[in-house]
Amino acid sequence: MNISDNDDLYSKRDWKRLMRDLGFSPRQEQILACLVRGESDKQIAASIGMATPTARTQMGRLFEKSDAQDRVALIRYLMHKSKVTHRPANH
Q1: Which end of the chain has fewer CB atoms at under 10 Å, N or C?
Q2: Residue 89: exposure state from Cβ atoms within 10 A (0-12, 13-18, ≥19)
Q3: Which domains does the chain have, with CATH numbers?
Q4: Where is pLDDT greater, at 87 or 30?
């Protein structure tokens, strides 16, 4: 599962690099991909094959890791970090 599977926000390579650079685990990467696609906690749990409370716990850890208060702030964090960590070579 990858964010680039359903839209063009990131190429697979850029998404993997961003996840690695930010220190997210493969499980967190899966959850973030679902989150960016707009899935609910229940949908995330079903997509990944975990219980809904576990998905919520994982989301809480992502909020802590990114110092985000909610889903929108977490997505903004990803967007900001992708700009900072992946600037074109000529800048």
Answers
A1: C
A2: exposed
A3: 3-85 (1.10.10.10)
A4: 30
